[in-house]
Amino acid sequence: MLLFNPVVFSILVMTVLCLLRFNILLSILVSALVAGVMYKHGFSGFESGLASGFESFFTALKETTQSLISGMQGNLETSLSYILLGALAAAIANTNLTAILINAMSKFLSSNKVIFTLTIAFIACLSQNLIPVHIAFIPILIPPLLALMNKMGIDRRAVACALTFGLQAPYVSISVGFGLLFHNILKKELANNGINTTISDISSVMWIGGASMFVGLILAILFYSKKRIYKTSKFEKAELDEIERAKSLEMTKKEWAVLAGAVVAFVVQIYTSLLPLGALLGLLVMVVFGGIEYKKVDKIMDNGLAMMGFIAFIMLVAAGYGTILRESGGIDELVKYASLVSGGKIGGAFLMLLIGLLVTMGIGTSFGTIPILASIYVPLCLSLGFGVPAIILLVGIAAALGDAGSPASDSTLGPTSGLNADGEHNHIYDTCVPTFIFFNIPLIIGGIVGAMILG
């Protein structure tokens, strides 16, 4: 029975635990142990006697844990990248650099609602690739603009979609900053499952994901173009004062040093394709030239760990989980079954993307989903006759699906943190539902059509 396949049962356990809002890290760990014990011990392990059954069970538990720990080393580079990028973002957030840059860009904000929303999306894109501050810019940019949005009658659901687009589309499609991190994980996990690619191979097809999301963004802006009235914000005066304060900020030696460090990080990662090296050298430039005070280095690193450390550990555990799924022997059975029920390439592509949507919705991070999905999808894609470009696209988009719309994702939590500063924006109905509809549907369509064209 397919339900008792170690891979299927384990994924179901993980999905249920995540949907029940159980801790994500513990959900993956428990699910990994379930897969390993089912493979090594099985449901019939107690038939030979209770004592020997328990001994066999604990042996399976021990061996699974060892496999999990061994497999975690597959994402050491990724986890280090996350921690160093977190420190880089914390260092930038510790200065007025972001506020100064945002203030300079805000001068170009149009009174036209469509152009205004697209400009917000463009600024959000920079946080993923050019200056990797992730979601740290949102509490600086959005609350001071709420009064202006209210005056213009902008529906904040459109702005939520713009912010989520900027937080996700760049890393899905562009191999810079968090995009390089995402593409490196994709490259490594494909290699772990027998598909050798390069970063240029990945970026040459993953633009389809970004283009699909851009179509969704345009549709969202048009759909939410009607004027929406919000209560006058009790923070409106404070918001306007914050805008005036930002206008008086100027670049100092500290801001120039941090900007230089960000540029170094950007250039090094482009030249070497090594994100940890770029982030490390960027941090050192900041320290040497006074962007980070020497006595505050520990604090910056602590803040970086607080910002990205949890995701880094999820990545480590996800790599171990992927290893256990590959070792379990259940993937071959699952692939044979899926090949039979999928009805060919189109059905198989839809099935994979749908499963990816459910898994990522539960975990809340595209990055942590790749090791899990790649171990299942690569054999399935090969059995259905997909070529390497199509496999890259399907695994990449399947992992990205659900990041938009997941209540636990930074791509939705970040926008809500800014748009709900005055209590007038609901996380589920004003951020998660719109982003789920306008990004996941185009991604599924783009993934299927793109995979069929690529073959």
UniProtKB/TrEMBL annotation:
List the transmembrane segments: 6-39, 82-102, 114-146, 158-182, 202-224, 277-294, 306-326, 346-364, 376-401, 436-454
Q: Where in the cell is it found?
A: Cell membrane
The protein's topology relative to the membrane is:
Multi-pass membrane protein
What stretch or stretches form a coiled coil here?
A: none
> Domain Na+/H+ antiporter NhaC-like C-terminal spans what residues?
163-447
Domain named Putative Na+/H+ antiporter N-terminal is located at 5-108
Keywords linked to the UniProt accession: Cell membrane, Membrane, Transmembrane, Transmembrane helix
| GO CC term, one of those recorded | plasma membrane
Main localization category: membrane
Report the domain of life of the source organism. Answer: Bacteria
- In Swiss-Prot or TrEMBL terms, this protein is called Histidine permease YuiF
Protein's organism: Campylobacter concisus UNSWCS
